[in-house]
């Protein structure tokens, strides 16, 4: 591909124009061409910016109204001689703190979040198709797969949390002499790999012809659903000793 510019000089013979070569650019791969009609576009200013300003203003009004009507759940000043029970992390880390209840701290605090970040970074390198770029879910099938994956992940997480709370993998396997390494590492890693594999198999079976993007949509929304489910459980359902309680029993238990 060449790039050129027109010089401000009079035509040579009345018809020709003098051009100067600026650069030679090598094009690697496929450059997606988006065919858009002028009537199908909107100007950033004022159309987009006005709506963004209105959305920000509405959000600010709602936030002020909620803060005026609902008291913040503040507790006493921090006391270094008194450790709260439970000592909870900030809400955005409560999903990881929830994992600490079910597996070894190294696995829950280092391996799992590190692997999640690496897998999220790998998505653009796995799905390289330019088709449907910039569209949510890519198709109606993508919406169905996202809903299925979200429900699948949320239901399984709730079932596993309840099982570990009232039955307990450790309480069940310790009397059998199963090594701690298997309980804290092998079983959790097997579940974290096996359940998404089953999910992918179900997606391929239910939606025939599911492509790479469909599979990535399924896995991504399962990840988002898991993140939200564990955060909600850690925020509203974990009381003293990190045992499960109803949300209205949190302060009563304290």
What labels describe this entry?
two-stranded antiparallel sheet, 254 residues, 8 helices, mainly alpha, 2 domains
Question: What does this entry look like structurally?
Answer:
Helix content is 56%, strand content 4%. The chain is mostly helical. It has two domains: 43-69; 91-253, no CATH class.
Number of strands: 2
Overall residue-averaged pLDDT value: 84
Strand content: under 5%
Helix content: 55-70%
Order of helices and strands: EEHHHHHHHH
Spatial extent as radius of gyration: 27 Å
- Count of separate structural domains: 2
Looking at the structure, what is the overall shape?
extended
Distance between the termini: 70 Å
Helical run tally: 8
Structural class: mainly alpha
Q: In terms of topology, how is this protein built?
A:
Elements: E1 2-6, E2 19-24, H1 44-69, H2 94-100, H3 105-126, H4 140-166, H5 169-173, H6 180-206, H7 212-236, H8 250-253
Helix pairs in contact: 2-3, 2-7, 4-7, 6-7
Summary, kept brief:
The protein is mainly alpha-helical. The protein has eight helices and two strands; from the N terminus they run ββαααααααα.
């Amino acid at each position: 591909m060449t790039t050129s510019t027109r010089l401000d000089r009079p035509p040579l013979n009345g018809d020709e124009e003098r051009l100067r070569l600026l650069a030679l650019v090598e094009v690697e791969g496929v450059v997606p061409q988006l065919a858009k009609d002028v009537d199908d576009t909107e100007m950033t200013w004022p159309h987009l910016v006005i709506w963004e300003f209105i959305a920000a203003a509405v959000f600010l009004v709602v936030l002020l109204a909620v803060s005026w009507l609902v008291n913040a759940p503040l507790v006493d000043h921090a006391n270094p001689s008194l450790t709260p029970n439970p000592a909870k992390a900030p809400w955005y880390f409560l999903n990881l703190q929830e994992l600490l209840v079910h597996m070894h701290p190294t696995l829950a605090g280092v391996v799992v979040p590190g692997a999640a970040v690496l897998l999220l970074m790998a998505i653009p390198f796995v799905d390289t198709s330019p088709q449907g770029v910039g569209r949510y879910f890519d198709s109606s099938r993508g919406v169905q797969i996202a809903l299925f994956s979200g429900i699948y992940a949320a239901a399984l997480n709730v079932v596993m949390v309840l099982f570990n709370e009232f039955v307990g993998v450790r309480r069940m396997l310790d009397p059998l002499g199963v090594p701690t390494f298997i309980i804290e590492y092998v079983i959790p890693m097997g579940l974290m790999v096996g359940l998404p594999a089953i999910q992918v198999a179900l997606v391929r079976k239910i939606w025939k012809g599911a492509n790479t993007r469909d599979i990535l949509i399924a896995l991504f929304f399962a990840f988002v659903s898991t993140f939200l489910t564990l955060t909600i459980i850690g925020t509203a359902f974990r009381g003293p000793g990190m045992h499960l309680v109803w949300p209205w029993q949190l302060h009563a238990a304290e």
